[in-house]
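ping. complex inputs:
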Amino acid sequence: MKHAIYKAALFLGAAVMMNSCSLDEYNPSQTTGDETLATFSGWKGLQTYCYSPLYGQLFSAFDYMSVAECGTDLWVTANNKTWAQELFYYEGLATNTNYTNKLFKEAYSMINSCNAVINRAPNVTNGAASDMGVLTAEAHCLRAYYYSILVTNYGNVTLTLDESSDNVNLTPKRSTISALYAQMVTDLKYAAEHLNATPYNGDYARVTKKTALGLLARVYAQGAGEGLTEDGVSYWQRAKEVSEDLINNASSYGAYLYTDVNDVWAQANNKSNKEALFIAAGPDTNDASATTYSESNLFSYSYPNPYSLSDVFKTKDSQNYLYGRVNNGVLAPSKYLINCFDATYDKRWEDSFTTAFGDFSYEQTPSWGGTGTYAKKAVTITQAMCTKYGIGTQFIGQKIYPYADFRYKAETFSQYPAKVWAQGTTTADTTKLTSVKNIYANPYPLDATENRFAIYLSKDYLTAAQKAQRGYVCINIDDLFDSNGEYQSATFDGTNSYLMFPALNKFNWNYDGAFGSTLQKKDGDVMIMRMAEVYLIAAEAEQELGNGDAAAGYLNVLRKRAARSESDYESHLKLTTATEQDVLDEYARELCGEFNRWSLLKRHHAFETQLKKANPRAAAAFTAKNYLRPISYDFLNQISNASEYGTNGY
Amino acid sequence: MKSKGKSAKRAFSKDIRRMSVLMGLTATLYSPACLYANTTFGGINNIAQSVSQAKFIKGKVVDEQGESMIGVSIKVKGTNMTVVTDLDGNFSVKAPVGSSIELSYIGYKNLTASVRDENFLNLKMEPNNTALNEVVVIGYGTVKKRDLTGAITTIKGEDIALNPGSNPMQALQGKVAGLDITKESGQAGSGVNMQLRGNRSFTASGNPTFIIDGMPGDYSTLNPNDIESIEVLKDASSTAVYGAAGANGVIIITTKSGAAGKTNVNFNAFVGVNGWSTVPKMRSGDSYIQTIRDANKATGNWSSTDDDERVMDGLLGSGAYAAHSKGEYIDWAKEVLRNNLVQNYSMSASGGTEKTKAYFSLNFSDEAGQYKGDDYKLYSSTMRIDHTVKPWLKVGVNAQMSYVHQNKAYSDLQTALTAVPLGTLRDSSGKLNVSPSVGGTNINILLDSEGGVYKNQEQDYKLYFNPYIEIHPMKGMSYISRIGGVLTDSRVNYFQGIGSYQYYMADASAVGTNANVYASVTEKRNLNYKWENILTYNFQIHKDHDITLTAVTSWNHDRYDYNYMKETNITDNSYLWYNMGNTGNANSTVSSTYNMSKGFGLVGRVAYSYLGRYLFSASARRDGSSKLASDHRWETFPAVSLGWRISDEKFMEGTHNWLDNLKLRLGYGVTGTANINPYSSQSNLEQSTTSFSGNVTNVYNFSQNYTNKNLTWEKSYNANIGVDMSVLKGRIDFTGDLYNTTTKGVIWSRQLPVTNGAYSASSNYITNMNICKTKNTGIELALNTRNIVQRDFKWSSTVTFNYNKEKIMSLIDGTSNNIANGDYSLSLGHPVKSYYHYKIDGVWQTNEAKDAAVFGAQPGDLKINVPGMVRESEGTYSKKVGGVETTYTADNKYSVSGNDYQVLGHNSPDWTLGFQNVFTYKSFDLNIFTYVRWGQMIKYSLLESYDPTGKGNFPKDFNYWTTTNASNDFPAINANKSLSSYTGYYALQYVDGSFIKIKNVTLGYTMPAKLLQKAGISKCRFYGTITNPFVFAKSHLLKNYDPEMNGNMNYPLTKQLVFGVNMSF
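pong. complex structure:
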C-alpha cells in the first residue's frame, strides 16, 4: 500500500519535472531573419522584393489607375454609371473608399523593406562593393518613388527611414511636406549618383540612372506645385534643370525618344521599351509559371463590350481572344479629351484609342475545329441590320469579315498572337496575313469601303447619308454624349450603340508572351515613366518660369513625331509659344491614361477650371479638401492616435 | 406527411440493391405495422415457465398512486433471471426462498424485496423524483448532483439517442440553456456550430473543449448510442480546472462501459430519406418575362406584348423569345437537388465479470446528400475494457476508432439559380450543354456530376487510445494515471478534369488540357498525446465535514504535419490523382509544413461540504504553453464556488411537503482561451519567388506575422449565480443561472499600420495582441415538468431558455471602432458578430422625389438612413458635424458615403428557446421538439441577386419597385440599371433571421416486453422521426428559406424522414 503511494508521488514528481526544460518550440520550416539578411543572397532577395508592388498591384489593377487618372478632366464613366463614383466624381469619397485605401497600403508596403535593405547593407559580409552600391541605390530610388505617390495623394504622411523590426510604431506622426520632398530629392540624387546607365544584371525592370533623374524631375515638378524651393531656388527651376540634363545628355544616360510615336505603342516594343525610364514588368507567359504571378486586367476597364451589338459583332466578351474579356468597361474618355486630339493630323488618337471593332478568326489554329474559320466568322449584313443601324440597303447580303486571325500557341497554351487580314480580303489565305505594329490601332479615318470592322465610332461627324455609304455600323462619338457632356445612359437611337465608347488601348496587348491564362488577364509591361514625360516636364517648367517659347520647343518634339506627315506638323501642329493650357492639353494627348493626370491637375491647381469644362459631375462635387485623398479608415483604426493623425478632411 | 412517407419508401426501395447485409435485417424491421398487427396482448402471463427448482412466486407492482405498473423489470439477484410485469402489473417468477428480487423502472427508485414463503407479493414503487443522488461528471472527478456548486447541465444518453443522426451534438440543439447550436448546411456529414454563453473572442473559435472519458476525443465520429451521458460545464467555477482551454465551456462525454453480469447487446438502426429542401421559387415562364417587360417599360422600351420578342431577344440574344414560347426553362433546384438515402446501424455488446468489464460497439452511418456524388460514410468502433487486478489496483483501456469516407459534390446552386433560367440543360443527344442558358455565360453546374470529371474526396482515420492505471492506496484515496494518444490522418483527394465545371468556368471554349485541369492530394496528420495524473483524497472530519482534495498534472505534446501536392495539365481524366508527376516539373507543386506545441498544467482543488448543506469548492490551475514567449508562458486560472442547500435548513422544514430541494449556487472563476498559433513568438523570413523583368527570381521577405513577445491567453472572468429547485415530488424541476463574463485581453490579430511596412502590397503585417475586451451577460432557465403522470398516459415538458447580451467593451487602444472582421464588424458596444453597412429605410417613393433629390436620388432608388440627418422640410435636410450644421438641398446635395454606415444587427441571437414535449400513451411515445432562435441578423446573399434588368434570375416573390408598385423591398426595376448602380444595394442582404421551427417529431412504439421475452429480446422500440418539418421565419424576405442556414444557399438544409429501431438483447 505504502509502496503505491510512493509510486504515485514519483509519477507526479516526474510530471512536474518535465515542464521546466521542455516547453520549447521546434520549427523546421522557416529561417530567422537576421542570419539570412546578413548574406548577400538573402539581402538581395529582400531588395528584389521591394519591387513587388509595381506589377504586383500598382500597375496591374485598377486601384492606382483610378486614383491617378479618374476625378480629372480626362475620364468619366461609361453610360454615366455610378460606379467608382468616389473616384470619378468625388461622390461619397470617404475614408473607407476602397481604391484610395488600397493605394495607401500599396505605396507604403515596401518602404519598410527599402529601409531594411538600406540600413542592413553594412551587415552583409559577402557582397561585392559594386553590387552592394548599386542595389542600395536602387532601394533609395524605390523608396523615393513610393513616397512620391504618398505625398502627391495624401499630403504630409509619416516619414520613416528605419526598419520597424521589433519596435513597431503604433502612434505614427505626420511629417511635413517639405521634409518629405527633401527626403525624396536626397534619395533620388543619391540614386542618380550611384546607379549605372544600364540595369544591374541586365534586369530591365531594375531602376537605373535615367530612372532616378526622371523621377527627380517629376518630384521637383510636383513639389513646385506645393511652392517649394531648394536653397532659395524654386522647384520649377530644378525641374527644368534636371529634365534638360536628361534630354541633352540622353544618350549617356541610355535615355531614348522614338522618332515615330507609333513605335512607342508598337506591340513588338512593349517588353523593355526603349523610351521607358521605369518599367513595371509583367511576367512572361512563355514561362508556364507566369500565371502564378500578378497579371494585368487594366484593359478590361477601358474597353466597351462590342458584343452589346451582338447582331453585328458575334463574339462574346468571354471568348474574345483579340480584345480580351472586357467585362469592367467603365473608364471612358471625356469629350474634352477626345477633342484634344486633332486626329486628322495627330497619330496619337489611334495610338490611344481603339474606335473600330472587328472580329477575329482562327485559321492559323486549325486544331481548334471549325467554328472559328474565316468564313464562319463573317457576318452577313441583313435588312434588319440596315434598318436598325442605318446601313445602306445596297450592302444587304455583303459580309463583314474578320479583322484579325490568331494563332494558338500549343507549347505554352496561353498565347494568341494575332495577325491582320488585308482590307478587301474575302477568302482565308493565311499566307496573306500581315503583322501590324499595333493591332489595336485601327486605321484612321476608317475607309468607307472597309469590310473588316463591324462597329466604328467616328470622331468626325457622319450624317445619315454618309453612314449609309458604309457597310458597317457607324456611331458618331458626339452622339454618345448628352448635352451635359456626360455619356448617354440610355439608348438614343433604339440600339445598344450607347454602350460603346472609345477604348483606351495603351494597356491592351497582343503579342507572343502577353496573354495570360484567362481572357481577363494580360501580361504586358507598363511604363511607369517614359522619356516623353521628361519633355513635357521641361516644357511645363519653362512655361511656369515664363519661357513660353522654350516650352513650345519641347512640346514640338512630341508633336512632330506624332504628326501624320512632316507637312501636317509644319502647318497644323507646330507651336511657337505655349500657354499653361497648351501644356495641360499636350499632357492629355501624350500621357492620357498613364497614371499622371490627377497629380498634374493638382500641381497646377487646375481642378476647378478643368473639371468645369470636362467633367461636370465631378465639378459639382469637388471641394478644396479633394486636393488630398482621404486617409485610409483601416489605417486610422490600426493606429493609436487616429484623431491626431486626421482624415485629410473626410 | 403521408405522401412523404410513401415517397420515402419509394426512394428506399430503389436504393435497396446497393445496401449492405445489415440493411436487409432492418428492412424486415422496417414495417412495424405488420409486426405488431400479428401480435396479441393476451397470453402474457406464462412467462416464467423456464424457471425451475425454486419457489414459484407471483406478485403485483403498483406505483405511488396505486396504479398497476407495466413493464417493470424484476431480476432475481444472483441469477440471470429477469421478468417484466404485464399489463395489469402482475408478474410471476421462480426464485429460491431467502433470495431477493430487484425491481427497476426508469424514473423510479430501485426496489429490493426478499422472497419469503408467501405466494403473492404486493409491491409499491416510489418515483425517483429528485435524482439528487445522481452522479454528475465534473472536471477530473465526479460529484453527486446534490453537492454540485457549478453550472452544469447533464444530458442522458437516452435523450441523445432519441434524435437520430450521425452527430451527437445535433441532438443537443435547444436542450442545454446557454449552448447555442446551429446546423447551417445540408451537406452530407456536415457538422454543427456551437457557441456557449455568447462570443467572447474575435479570432478564437467558440467551440467548447471536448473531453471524452477524461481525454480529448472526437465527438463528430462518436456513435451517439455509445454515450452514457454528456455534461456541459458552463461556468468558470466548473471549467477553470481546464485553465487555458476552459473559457468556451467544457463538454464532457462519458461513454458506456460494461457491467458485470449478463451480456447486453444493443442494436440500433434507422433508414430514411434526406431531402425536400425548401428553396426559393425562382422566376420562370410568365413571371420571368413579366419582369423583363417591367424593366423595359421603365425605360420606355416596352409598351405592349408586341414588343416581347424584340425586347427579350435584345436582352438575351436572338432566339430567346422563341425559347420562352416553347417554355424552355430550367428549374435548377429541381435539376440539382434530389431526395436521398440516409441510414445508420450500430451494435454494441457489453458485459463482464466482477473483475473484468468490457464494452464494444460498431457503427456504420451512411448519409447521401441532395447532390449527386455527395455522400458521407462513417465506420466507427469503440472499445472499453476495465480490469480489477487487485482490490487496490485497476487497469483499463478505452479506444475510439473511426474511418470517414466522404465525397463532396461541387455546389454553386446560388449561381445556377440566379443565372438566366431560359435554356436547355442538354443537347439533343442528351449531353449536358456547357452554357445552358440562352445568351448567358453561366456554366452548367451539373457538369461536375457526370462523366467522372470532378472528384473531391476526403478520407479520415482517427484513433484515440487511452490506457489508464488506477490505484486505491488507502480508503478515500485514488490515484489515476492515464495517457490519451491521438493519431489522426486526413487526406483530401481532389480532381477537376477536362470537361468539369471549373474547367469551363475559366474558359468556356477550352479545348484539351490546361492549367485548370488538375489533381491534388492534401494530407494532414496529427500525432498528439496527453498524460494526466489525478490524485483524489476524500475524507471526513467528525462525520459532518466532508473534504475532497484533488491534484492533477497534465502534460501534452501535439505535433502536426501537412503535405500537399498538385499537378496541373493532366491529360487524361481517368488518371485522377493516381498518376501525378508525369506532366513535367513546371506543372507540379509540392509543399509541406510542420508545427508542434507543448503544454503543461497543474491543478489543485479542494471541495468541502458541511452537513451536505454548505458547500464550498476552490481550485487553481497553472498552465504553461510553448506557444507563448518564455516570459509569458505561465498563467494561473483560479476559481471558487459556494453552494447552500436552503431546503435542508431547519427553518425550511415547513416546506417539505411541497419543496423537495432548493439550492443556491455562487461561482466565480477565471478561464482562458486563445487562438494562438504555434511559433507566434518567433519572427521569421520567408523565401518565395517573384516575376522580375519577365523572369522568375528568388526573393526573401519578412513573414507576415510580427512577433509579439507579450502575447498571452485571453482571460474570461466569470461570475455565476444559480438556483436549483424541485417541487411537488419532482413534478417540477427548475434550474436558473445568471452569469456575467468579462473577457479581457481579447486577442485581435492586429494589422500593423502600414507606416511600418507591409507583408506585401495587399497584405499588412499582422501581430496578435491582447488588446480588446468583451462582456457577456445572460440568463439561463431550464424547466422540467411532468404535467400528467397517469398509468397509461404521461406528458412531460422541458423548456430551456437563454438570453444573452454581448458587447464589445473596448477595441484596439480604446480608440478604434467598426473594424472589419470578415463579414462582420467589430463595433464598440455591440456584439462581436455585428453587421455594419448602410441602413436601408426602404425605397424613395414617387411623392418623395424632392426629398430624394437632396441625396442625389430619385424615386425607385434606395433610401439610405443617414445618421444625424434631420429633415427640415420637403427637400431640405440638415446635419450637424462637429457643431457645424450644414443644410442640404437638391442644389447642395448630400453624397452618401461609407461614413454613413451603421451597425445593423448581429449574427448571434438575442435569445433561444427549446421546448420539448414527450407524450407517452401505453406503448407509444411521441416527442415534439420546437426550437426558437430570435434576434439574429443574417447575410442572405440571394437578396443581392435581384437584377433590375430582369435578366439574371431572382425569386418570384421579390417585390420590386415600379411607378405603380410602391414597394420598399427592392429598388426600381429598370432595364438600364445594374443592381450595383443603386447606392446601398449591398446592404439589401442583411435581414432579420429570427425563426421558429419544429425541429423534430418522433413517434415511437415499444413492443410489449412479455412478447419479446420469448425471442430473447428485452427491449424493442420502433420509431419514425421527421426532422425540420416546419419553419417560420420572421422576415417576409425569407420565403421558402430556412434561416438556420445563416444566409448560405449552396447546400440547403434538408428535411429528414427516418424509421428506426432500438433493440436490446
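Residues 1-52 of chain B have pLDDT under 50 and may be disordered.
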